[in-house]
Design brief:
about 15% strand, six-stranded mixed β-sheet, binds iron/sulfur cluster, two-stranded parallel sheet, about 375 residues, alpha/beta, 15 helices
Length: about 375
């Protein structure tokens, strides 16, 4: 059996299967972030460290059976026909969970997020590709991927939990890990994400666990405040999810029900071998989840200080670091507001009045009522 403390090989699903896998791409550089609501809403998502399959995303966009001419008239159209549509959460994230990047994209502009879900499939820009490549490189510095074949949804989730435990072992023994997948129930909604980096160095004052996120930029300066705020929101979401996991608040029963997973399901041979290689031989999916929960209970909560790093895309040199404090009230307010939109409790809001500049970079501007209505200024949110 392989010593789990020395095996840092993350596991990667092969592309032989046809299963749709929820994955996530995070844009990391300036322009990608400016377009993030659009970009993150649909096809571009960064994968969990264990899953590099990207063909399972079509359902996000294909179900938006609305003509392009209807852009910007979605709500009006549904109202006049008196049709009650399912919420965006049900239509686009059912059995997948909401991505942390959905929350940040919604914070950027809810209307843009809505457009992206209903109609858009973004172009992945060169800048975005560079950001993604940088993250892959950072991950390679601390881990090596091993491919395995997955056959069922239970296998896919088992992979995520195996990779979580590999990352957790690496964090405890090496003091550093990257691309750690997290999942949790937040205000009644399942949320998933991938924490960029976790550091737990040994210091004179003990060991503090610090969550870190690196953004790559084309320009050698820190971004505007709305972009910094968006990055802070992302990191706070990760801390929230991490702290819930390690305080043993993972509701397994609800997890199985929501994602339609069977704890008695026998894992594929490849996954069984992976669990054994990782130090915890398991036969069923439920055994993996139980092991995952045990591992979580041994881990510390994250420190309240969080760290955003800005790197120059050209040479990966450090531009600046933004160290800030976790703010539970602010985060919960942001998530509540976002969920009101996702759960269909109100219509999408437009950008704040003093952030109208975002519209200049929006690929939906020509269809957006904020730009096309005669009284467009009334659409913007007051500060
Ligand atoms: S044009 Fe502005 S308000 Fe409209 S979707 Fe784009 S960013 Fe949002």
């Amino acid at each position: 059996m392989t010593d789990s403390t020395t095996n840092n090989n993350k596991i990667d699903a092969t592309e032989e299967n046809q299963i749709e896998i929820p994955i996530e791409i995070v844009s990391e550089e300036e322009m990608a972030l400016i377009e993030s609501a659009f970009s993150l809403a649909s096809a571009a998502r960064r994968s969990f460290p264990c899953s590099r399959i990207s063909r399972g995303l079509s359902s996000s966009c294909s179900s938006g059976a609305v003509d392009f001419e209807d852009l910007g008239r979605v709500n009006k159209k549904s109202n006049t026909k008196n049709v009650k549509l399912d919420s965006l959460l049900i239509r686009f994230r059912k059995k997948r969970g909401l991505y942390v990047t959905d929350i940040t994209a919604t914070e950027w502009c809810e209307k843009q997020m809505e457009f992206g879900l209903l109609f858009g499939k973004p172009k992945i820009t060169d800048a975005m590709k560079a950001g993604i490549a940088r993250h892959a490189k950072l991950e390679e510095e601390v881990t090596k991927k091993v491919e395995v074949r997955v056959e069922t949804l239970e296998d896919i989730w088992a992979l995520k939990f195996i990779n979580f435990t590999i990352c957790a072992n690496q964090l405890m023994f090496d003091g550093l890990t990257r691309e750690l997948p997290v999942v949790g129930l937040v205000q009644g909604v399942w949320m998933v994400g991938v924490i960029d980096e976790l550091r737990m160095p040994v210091t004179e004052n003990g060991r503090n666990l610090v969550l870190v996120d690196t953004k790559t930029r084309r320009q050698p300066r820190i971004p505007a405040e709305p972009q910094c705020r968006n990055g802070r929101l992302q990191l706070m979401c990760y801390k929230y999810l991490w702290d819930k996991l390690v305080s043993d608040e993972f509701p397994s029963k609800q997890f199985y029900e929501y994602f339609s997973l069977d704890p008695e399901h026998t894992l594929s041979d490849d996954i069984k071998m992976s669990t054994a290689d990782s130090g915890f031989p398991a036969e069923t999916f439920g055994e993996v989840v139980n092991y995952f929960r045990n591992v979580c209970s041994t881990l510390p909560p994250a420190h309240d200080q969080l760290l955003l790093r800005y790197e120059l895309q050209d040479d990966n040199s450090l531009i600046a670091e933004d160290e800030f404090s976790y703010d539970d009230d602010w985060l919960n307010g942001q998530i509540s507001s976002s969920l009101e939109f996702w759960q269909g409790q109100r219509e999408a809001k437009y950008v704040l009045e003093n952030e109208v500049w975002k519209c200049r970079f929006c690929q939906f501007a020509r269809y957006c009522p904020s730009q096309t209505d005669a009284n467009s200024e009334t659409n913007f949110q007051t500060n």
